[in-house]
Write a structure and sequence with these properties.
Number of helices: 9
Structural class: alpha/beta
CATH superfamily of the largest domain: Vaccinia Virus protein VP39
Helix content: 25-40%
Distance between the termini: 46 Å
Radius of gyration: 20 Å
Number of domains: 2
Number of strands: 9
Largest sheet: 7 strands, mixed
Strand content: 15-25%
CATH class of the largest domain: Alpha Beta
Order of helices and strands: EHEHEHEEHEHHEEEHHH
CATH topology of the largest domain: Rossmann fold
Strand order of the largest sheet: 4-3-2-5-6-9-7
Shape: elongated
């Protein structure tokens, strides 16, 4: 029985692998980052197409096998991708990976802080649906806002548990992420925008004015933008407008 200590479920469905490769639109000049190569099935295919592949694997048990089996154009890094200083990772143009589900959110937001052309990633289906969710839906979340601010995102296909070994208990989805050349709307301060977004979604069932009045040590304004709305009703752009209005009161935000 294969242990899943590191949250890995090895992709064994060749049809899904072909869809990943097709969606990535790889060329010989691409340098691909793969997270969690596992037994190297996808890694081998990537190495046949691209000049260089950077594979980051955490599981000690897989490293000896990967070192012996992977071709010379694969740079194997034995580490946790979330602990790595990404400035030390070799330059890459695209990301193709079957992500361990538990790092989906932190990895995605960290990826947005780097330069890349395209990412084709497998996520848990529920997570993928939150990535593309629109205002007013149950799935709409801070993740939806963060993705909309940083990239064009679409679900390419859903994947059954039987496509993996061992099979997970949930369905997965193949996602395409293409970073935006510039943000779709203006915010005065990006860290503050994301901090406020997180605060609002933490209290998503409350009205905006109620959250603000309880979260700032000084009364902000009698006319809080979208004050009678709940955050789940606001578009990412509207949350950006609200963060711009509240930015001058940043120092009064209770931590």
């Amino acid at each position: 029985m294969v242990k899943t200590k590191f949250g890995q479920h090895f992709l064994i469905n060749e049809t899904v692998i072909e869809k990943e490769l097709f969606a990535a639109q790889l060329s010989q000049n691409d340098i691909v980052l793969e997270i969690g190569p596992g037994k190297g099935v996808l890694t081998q295919r990537l190495a046949q197409i691209c000049d260089h592949v950077v594979a980051v694997e955490l599981d000690d048990r897989l490293i000896p096998f990967l070192k012996k089996s992977l071709p010379s154009n694969v740079i194997l890094i034995h580490d946790d991708i979330m602990d790595l200083d990404w400035s030390e990772i070799p330059y890459f143009t695209k990301v193709v990976a079957n992500l361990p589900f538990q790092i989906s959110s932190p990895f995605t937001f960290k990826l947005f802080q780097t330069k890349f052309e395209k990412a084709v990633l497998i996520y848990q289906r529920e997570f993928a649906q939150r990535m593309i969710a629109k205002p007013g839906s149950k799935q709409y979340s801070r993740l939806s806002v963060g993705v909309a601010y940083n990239a064009n995102c679409r679900i390419l296909t859903h994947i059954t548990p039987s496509s993996f070994s061992p099979p997970p208990e949930v369905y997965s989805s193949l996602i395409e992420l293409i970073p935006l050349k510039s943000p779709p709307f203006h915010v005065v301060d990006e860290p503050y925008f994301f901090s406020l977004t997180n605060l609002l979604f933490t209290h998503r069932r409350k009205q905006i004015k109620t959250i603000i009045n309880h979260s700032f040590s000084k009364r902000v304004s009698e006319d809080i933008m979208f004050g009678s709305n709940r955050v789940e009703e606001l578009s990412p752009n509207q949350i950006g407008l609200l963060s711009n209005q509240l930015y001058p009161f940043k120092s009064y935000l209770i931590q």
